[in-house]
Specification:
The complex is a heterotrimer of chains A (about 625), B (about 260) and C (about 220). Helices cover about 35% and strands about 15% of the residues of chain A. Chain A is an alpha+beta fold. Chain A has 3 domains: about 300 residues, FAD/NAD(P)-binding domain (3-Layer(bba) Sandwich), CATH 3.50.50.60; about 140 residues, Flavocytochrome C3, Chain A, domain 1, CATH 3.90.700.10; about 110 residues, Methane Monooxygenase Hydroxylase, Chain G, domain 1. Chain B is about 35% helix and about 15% strand. Chain B has 8 helices and 7 strands, in the order E-E-H-E-E-E-E-E-H-H-H-H-H-H-H. Chain B has a 5-stranded mixed sheet with strand order 2-1-5-3-4. Chain B has a two-stranded antiparallel sheet with strand order 6-7. In chain B, strand 6 and strand 7 form a beta hairpin. Chain B is elongated. Chain C has one domain: Up-down Bundle (3 helical TM bundles of succinate and fumarate reductases). The longest helix of chain C is centred in the middle third of the chain and has 29 residues. The radius of gyration of chain C is 21 Å and the shape is globular. The chains are: A alpha+beta (about 625), B alpha+beta (about 260), C mainly alpha (about 220). Chains in contact: A-B, B-C. Chains A and B meet through helix 3, helix 5, helix 6, helix 11 and helix 12 of A and helix 1, helix 2 and helix 3 of B.
Chain lengths: ~625, ~260, ~220
C-alpha cells in the first residue's frame, strides 16, 4: 500500500493556499456531468453535499435515518472551536493549531491540522450567515466560552445544542440544493458495498430499508461521511444506528484504515443502571468546573454519600493532579475514575461510578447560581436517574464517545482507493490520539464545506473516466455478494439475538481494550472475539426476510461488521506499545503512573491494509514529521 | 441489584406489517421490568424475547435516545410522547408506571405521515416543507465576517428557541386537525428573527406555507395542543409570527 | 393584473384563516354595537323607537346590512371549508387519545356553537327582522321577551355566542399574528371579557321575562308620587 499524503510543499502557512491554486479546476459547465455519491448526512456529509451542489456537481446523498436531519452530529452539546480571537485573549490560527496537535498527543499530521485551524474562522462566518443562532453578547456580537485543553476562550455555541444547530444549518443548505435540483436525497438507505471499477471507486450498493431492495448507484467519486465506530463498545454515547459498516466495506475494498485503537472515553456520563441499558448519556464536561469528583477512602463503603464525612472522602483528581484538579483532560479523568473503581471504591448500586459533588459550590455560590449554569444538566440527570443532584452527589462513569481513528486519507481527503474520499469522524482525522472538546464539529464542517469542494476538482479534473453505469458487471457482482451475506444471516436460525452478540462484544472490548490496555488483556480479546464471531454465524436468531423493513436484519448486518472490525482495533492497540492520548497501555507509563509516549518507535499513523478473507492484515506506517511544533510531554500536574 | 422493585406490565401495541396492510392492536406481557429502564428499553426487552421466539419484533424507530434527534415518536396511553411534559418518548422511564399497568402504544396517526410498519411512520413531508424555503441562500465561502452583522441578543435567543425544533412531528400528531403549523412556524420564525434571514423572508413565508398546504396538513384552530406536547417547548407565538409574515408577504411582496 | 395575492387569501390555509379572523372580529364588533343599541331599551320606548327609526330611515343601512350578510357568509363559508379540510386531515384511529392541555371546551365546540348561533340567528331574523313592525319595535321586543320559549332560545343563543367567542376572540388575534409575550395575556383576558359581555343579550331578555322593567317603573312611580 502506497501512502502518499500529498502534503504540499512550502511553509505551513502557505500550504493550503498554494495547494488550492495548484489543484486542477473543473470547468463550471462540466461540473454537472460529474455524479458524486455522498454517504451520510452528518455535519461532514450534509455540508459536502451542500457545497458541491452549490458548485454545480450532480450530488446524490444517502442516509440511513428517515430524514437527513437526524444524523448523530445533532447530539453534540458543547460548541465549535475557531481561532477568531474575538475575546482578544491572544488566540490565533497558530495557537489553535498548536493546541490541537498537543491535545492529540502529537499523533496528527501537521499540515492537515494547520489547515483545519485556518478554516475554522470561515466556518463560523458561513454558519452565522446561514442562520445558525449562535450565542451572543448584549452588543449583538458572538459570544464564546472556554473549553478543555485550551487557555483561550474560542468555543462558539448555541446553548447546549451546538451540534444540533450546526447540523440543521448544513441540512438546510443541503435542502436548498435539493430544491435547486443539484442534490438528490435518498433517505432510509444503508450503504452495503462500494463498487470499484478499474481500480477506482465508481459507485455504491445500498439497501433500501423500507422495501429491502438492493439499489445500485454509479458516480465519479464516493464520499464516505459515515461517522465513527464508538458503538463497537456496545454502550456508548453514540446513537443506536451509528456503525462501522461503511468504513469496513471501504477497508475490504482496499482503503487503508488508520489508528483504529484511538478511541475516546468521556469522563462525565450517566452510569448504567442495569443489563437492559441501551445507551449512555453524556453530560457536558463543563460540570467539572464546579463539581468535585470523589470516592470513599475505604473499599466497599456502603453508606449514603451524604453520611460519609469529609475526612473519609478521597478527592482523587485533586489529590493526584493538584495543578489542574478536576479539570484534567478527558482521558486522564476517565482513567483515574476507572482506577478507583478497579480498587473497589466505586459507588452506586453497581459499584461502577464515582461521585460528582456540587455540595461545596452550592455552599459557596448558592443553589440558584448552580441551577442557572447547569440547570438543564441537573434536570437531565434527574430524568434518567430519578436522583436530585442538588441534594445528593451525582454519579458519573466514563463512556465511549468518539473515535479518532478511521479511514486513512491524504491531504485531499482521498483514501488509498482513488475516487473514494472520507470526511469527518469517518476519516482518521486531525485529532491524533485524542480529540479536544469542540473540535469534532469544526473538523466535520471544515471537511465538507471547505476542503472537499477544493480538492475533489483535482481528482475529477485530473483523470479520464470511462463510462460506468449501475447495471455494469461490477455492480451485479457487488450486489450478489451483499445478497449472499444477507441470505447467510437469515439462514442461521439460531437462538441469540444480534443485540446479545453486540453486548457480548462490547463487554470484551470495554474490559480488555477500553480505558486501560495491556498485552495480556488485548491478547485475551483477540482470542474471545473470533469465538463470539463464530457463534454469531452459527447461532444468530433473525426472524423475517430481507425484502421488507427488518430492523433485526439491519442490526445483525452492523454487528457482523463490528465483530470483524473489533479484531483489527485490538490488533492495532496491541501493536502500538506506547501510551498516547486516549490509548493507554498500562505497560508504558512514567514512574508516577502517567501515560508515556514512545516517539522513537511510534511517531506514525498505523495504516491497516486488508489482505483477504481469513488473512492477516498488513500494517503500513505513515511517519509523522513535526517541522513546526516542538514535541513535548503532556503534563497536567 | 435489588430486584424487588421489578414489575410486570402489559402493552397493547399497534402492529401493521406494511403500508397497505390492515393493522391491529396486539397485547404483549412484559415481565420483570426495572423502574430505571427507559420506555424504549422496555420495548427492547420485549423485542429480544420476540426475536428468540422467531417472531417479528415490533418495528419502532429511535436513534440518539437522548431526546435530540427527533427520531422516536409514540402515542403512549393516548398521550403524544407519553406522560412526561416537554420530553420525547425515549426519555420516558418505566418508573412512571406500576405493576399490572396496561399501556397502549400507537404510532403517529396522521394522513401526511403514512405508517410504514408497526410504529414507524414516514415524516418526509416535513423535509419537503424545509426544502421549500427553510434556508438562507448563501453560498459557501461568500459570507462576511461573522461579527460584521450584529444581532439583537433577545432576537438571537428567540431565534434559538424556535430553532430548537427536532422535527419529530409530535405537533402534527397532537393537533386536532393534523396541522404542521408549529413546525413550519418555528422555522419561518427562526429565520425571520435573524438579520441574515431578512432578505428572503417574504418568499420564504409564501413558499413554505404553500408547501405545507400541498402536503395536506390541516389548518390551525389555535387550540395549542402542539405547544402542550412539544418536547422542545416551542411556543405558538411562532405560528402567530408565521401568520404575520405570510400576510405581510402576501400584501406587500412583489410575488 | 396580478391577482395571485387575492387568490392566495382563499387558497392558502393561512389566507382562509385570516379571512375567518377578520370577519369574526367584525362580527364581534357588530355584536357589541348591537348590544349597546339594545341597552337603549332601558331608556324607554321613545328612545328606543327613535333610534330604530333613525336606522331605518338612514339610506346607508341597506348597504350596511348587505355588508354584514357578506361578512357572515365569508365567516361561515371559510369556517366550513377549513373544518371540512380539518376533518379530512385530522389524525384518526387513535385507540386512546387524551388532550394534553391546549384544548378548551370553547375551542373543542367551535363548530357546534357555530351551528347553534346560525340556528338562533335564523330564528332571530324570522321573529324580529322579517315580520310586521306596525306595533313598534319597543313593543315587539319587550312582548317577545315576556315569552318563556323565546327567552330560552335567546339565552341559549347568547351562551353559544359566549362559548364561541371564548375561543374565537383570542384565536382571531393569534391568526392575525398579533402575539407578544407582554400583550397576549391581556388579549386572552380581553377576549373572555368580550365573550362574557355577550351575556348582556341574555340579561336583557331575562330582565323583561321576569318583569323587572315593570318593577322599575313601579318604583319610579312611587318616587314620583
Amino acid at each position: 500500500m502506497k501512502l502518499d499524503a500529498q502534503i504540499p510543499s512550502g511553509p505551513i502557512e502557505k500550504k493550503w493556499d498554494s495547494h488550492k491554486f495548484n489543484t486542477k479546476l473543473v470547468n463550471p459547465n462540466n461540473k454537472r456531468k460529474f455524479d458524486i455519491l455522498v454517504v451520510g448526512t452528518g455535519l461532514a456529509g450534509a455540508s459536502a453535499a451542500a457545497s458541491l451542489g452549490e458548485l454545480g456537481y450532480n450530488v446524490k446523498v444517502f442516509c440511513l435515518q428517515d430524514t437527513p436531519r437526524r444524523a448523530h452530529s445533532i447530539a453534540a452539546q458543547g460548541g465549535i472551536n475557531a481561532a477568531k480571537n474575538y475575546p482578544n485573549d491572544g488566540d490565533s490560527v497558530w495557537r489553535l493549531f498548536h493546541d490541537t496537535i498537543k491535545g492529540g498527543d502529537y499523533r496528527a499530521r501537521e499540515a492537515n491540522v494547520y489547515r483545519l485551524a485556518q478554516i475554522s474562522n470561515q466556518i463560523i462566518d458561513h454558519c452565522a450567515a446561514i442562520g445558525v443562532p449562535f450565542g451572543r453578547e448584549y452588543g449583538g456580537l458572538l459570544s464564546t466560552r472556554s473549553f478543555g485543553g485550551a487557555q483561550v476562550s474560542r468555543t462558539f455555541y448555541t446553548r447546549g445544542q451546538t451540534g444540533q444547530q450546526l447540523l440543521l444549518g448544513a441540512y438546510s443548505a443541503m435542502m436548498r440544493q435539493a430544491a435547486a435540483g443539484t442534490v438528490k436525497i435518498y433517505p432510509r438507505r444503508e450503504m452495503a458495498d462500494i463498487v470499484i471499477s478499474n481500480g477506482r471507486a465508481r459507485g455504491i450498493t445500498v439497501r433500501n430499508l423500507v422495501t429491502g431492495e438492493l439499489e445500485n448507484y454509479s458516480g465519479h467519486a464516493v464520499l464516505l461521511c459515515t461517522g465513527g465506530y464508538a458503538n463497537v463498545f456496545y454502550l456508548s454515547t453514540n446513537a443506536a444506528l451509528c456503525n462501522v459498516s461503511a468504513a469496513w466495506a471501504a477497508y475490504k475494498k482496499g482503503a487503508g484504515l488508520a489508528n483504529p485503537c484511538f478511541t475516546q472515553i468521556h469522563p462525565t456520563c450517566i452510569p448504567r443502571s442495569g443489563e437492559h441499558q441501551s445507551k449512555l448519556t453524556l453530560m457536558s464536561e463543563s460540570l467539572r468546573n464546579d463539581g468535585r469528583i470523589w470516592v470513599p477512602k475505604t473499599k466497599g463503603d456502603k453508606r449514603h454519600a451524604n453520611e460519609i464525612p469529609e475526612g473519609e472522602r478521597d478527592y482523587f483528581l485533586e489529590r493526584r493532579y493538584p495543578a489542574f484538579g478536576n479539570l484534567v483532560p478527558r482521558d486522564i479523568a476517565s482513567r483515574a475514575s476507572k482506577a478507583m473503581i478497579d480498587e473497589g471504591r466505586g459507588v452506586g448500586p453497581t459499584g461502577l461510578s464515582v461521585y460528582l459533588d456540587f455540595r461545596d459550590s452550592i455552599k459557596r455560590k448558592g443553589e440558584d447560581k448552580i441551577r442557572e449554569e447547569y440547570g438543564n444538566l441537573f434536570d437531565m440527570y434527574h430524568q434518567i436517574t430519578d436522583e436530585n443532584g442538588y441534594k445528593v452527589p451525582m454519579r458519573i462513569y466514563p463512556a465511549s464517545h468518539y473515535t479518532m481513528g478511521g479511514l486513512w486519507v491524504d491531504y485531499n481527503l482521498m483514501t488509498t482507493v482513488p475516487g473514494l474520499f472520507a470526511l469527518g469522524e469517518a476519516n482518521f482525522s486531525d485529532h491524533g490520539a485524542n480529540r479536544l472538546g469542540a473540535s469534532a464539529l469544526m473538523q466535520g464542517l471544515a471537511d465538507g464545506f471547505f476542503v472537499i469542494p477544493a480538492t475533489i476538482g483535482g481528482y475529477l479534473g485530473g483523470s479520464k473516466f470511462e463510462p460506468v453505469n449501475a447495471t455494469a458487471a461490477e455492480f451485479k457482482a457487488g450486489e450478489s455478494a451483499v445478497k449472499n451475506k444477507l441470505n447467510k444471516l437469515l439462514a442461521i436460525k439460531g437462538k441469540k439475538t444480534p443485540t446479545e452478540f453486540h453486548r457480548q462484544l462490547g463487554n470484551v472490548m470495554w474490559n480488555d481494550c477500553g480505558m486501560g490496555r495491556t498485552e495480556t488483556t488485548l491478547k485475551k480479546a483477540l482470542k474471545k472475539i473470533p469465538e463470539i464471531r463464530e457463534e454469531f454465524w452459527t447461532n444468530l436468531a433473525l426472524p423475517g426476510t430481507s425484502m421488507e423493513m427488518n430492523q433485526t436484519l439491519e442490526k445483525a448486518f452492523k454487528v457482523a461488521d463490528f465483530l470483524e472490525f473489533s479484531e483489527l482495533l485490538v490488533k492495532d492497540a496491541l501493536e502500538r506499545k506506547e501510551s498516547c492520548g486516549a490509548h493507554f497501555r498500562e505497560e508504558s507509563v512514567t514512574p508516577e503512573g502517567e501515560a508515556r509516549r514512545d516517539d522513537a518507535n511510534f511517531s506514525h499513523a498505523a495504516v491497516w491494509e486488508y489482505k483477504g478473507e481469513g488473512k492477516e492484515p498488513a500494517l503500513n506506517k505513515e511517519p509523522l514529521v513535526f517541522e513546526n511544533i516542538k514535541i513535548a510531554e503532556r503534563n497536567y500536574k | 441489584m435489588n430486584n424487588s422493585k421489578h414489575f410486570n406490565v402489559t402493552i397493547r401495541v399497534w402492529r401493521q406489517s406494511g403500508p397497505d396492510e390492515q393493522g391491529r392492536m396486539v397485547p404483549y406481557e412484559v415481565k420483570d421490568i426495572s423502574p430505571d429502564m427507559s420506555f424504549l428499553e422496555m420495548i427492547d426487552v420485549l423485542n429480544e424475547n420476540l426475536i428468540k421466539k422467531n417472531e417479528q419484533p415490533i418495528t419502532v424507530e429511535s436513534d440518539c435516545r437522548e431526546g435530540i434527534c427527533g427520531c422516536c415518536g409514540l402515542v403512549v396511553n393516548g398521550e403524544v410522547h407519553g406522560p412526561d411534559e416537554h420530553s420525547t418518548v425515549c426519555q420516558l422511564h418505566m418508573r412512571r408506571f406500576k405493576d399490572g399497568d396496561i399501556i397502549t402504544v400507537e404510532p403517529w396517526r396522521v394522513r401526511s405521515f403514512p405508517i410504514i410498519k408497526d410504529l414507524a411512520v414516514d415524516r418526509s413531508a416535513l423535509d419537503r416543507i424545509i426544502q421549500a424555503g427553510g434556508y438562507i441562500s448563501v453560498n459557501t465561502g461568500a459570507a462576511p465576517d461573522a461579527n460584521s452583522i450584529p444581532v439583537n441578543k433577545d432576537n438571537a435567543e428567540e431565534a434559538m428557541d424556535s430553532a430548537a425544533c427536532i422535527g419529530c412531528g409530535a405537533c402534527v400528531a397532537a393537533c386536532p386537525n393534523g396541522a404542521a403549523m408549529l413546525f413550519t412556524g418555528a422555522k419561518i420564525s427562526q429565520l425571520a428573527l435573524l438579520p441574515q434571514g431578512e432578505p428572503e423572508k417574504q418568499t420564504r413565508a409564501l413558499n413554505m406555507v404553500a408547501a405545507m398546504d400541498c402536503e395536506k396538513f390541516g389548518n390551525c384552530s389555535n387550540e395549542y395542543e402542539c405547544e402542550a406536547v412539544c418536547p422542545k417547548d416551542i411556543k405558538v407565538s411562532n405560528i402567530a409570527r408565521m401568520n404575520r409574515e405570510f400576510m405581510l408577504a402576501n400584501l406587500f411582496s412583489k410575488h | 393584473m396580478n391577482i395571485t395575492f387575492i387568490r392566495r387569501l382563499i387558497s392558502a390555509s393561512i389566507g382562509r384563516k385570516v379571512l375567518m379572523a377578520v370577519s369574526g372580529l367584525a362580527l364581534g364588533l357588530f355584536m357589541l354595537v348591537h348590544l349597546a343599541e339594545n341597552l337603549l331599551l332601558f331608556k324607554g320606548e321613545m328612545a328606543y323607537n327613535d333610534w330604530v327609526d333613525f336606522l331605518l330611515s338612514n339610506p346607508l343601512t341597506p348597504f350596511f346590512e348587505v355588508g354584514l350578510l357578506g361578512i357572515f357568509i365569508i365567516h361561515i363559508v371559510m369556517g366550513v371549508w377549513v373544518r371540512v379540510e380539518d376533518f379530512i386531515n385530522a389524525p384518526r384511529g387513535y385507540e386512546a387519545r387524551k388532550w394534553q392541555g391546549g384544548r378548551t371546551i370553547g375551542s373543542a365546540t367551535q363548530l357546534y356553537t357555530a351551528a347553534a348561533i346560525l340556528a338562533y340567528l335564523t330564528y332571530h331574523m324570522l321573529t324580529f327582522r322579517f315580520v310586521n313592525h306596525d306595533m313598534g319595535f319597543y313593543q315587539m321586543v319587550t312582548s317577545a321577551f315576556r315569552n318563556n320559549f323565546f327567552v330560552a332560545i335567546y339565552v341559549g343563543g347568547a351562551l353559544a355566542v359566549v362559548l364561541h367567542l371564548s375561543h374565537g376572540m383570542q384565536s382571531a388575534f393569534q391568526t392575525l399574528g398579533v402575539s407578544h409575550p407582554k400583550y397576549t395575556p391581556f388579549i386572552k383576558l380581553g377576549g373572555w371579557l368580550v365573550a362574557l359581555t355577550m351575556m348582556g343579550f341574555a340579561f336583557i331578555s331575562v330582565y323583561y321575562l321576569f318583569g323587572l322593567d315593570l318593577g322599575a317603573a313601579a318604583v319610579e312611580m312611587t318616587v314620583v308620587q
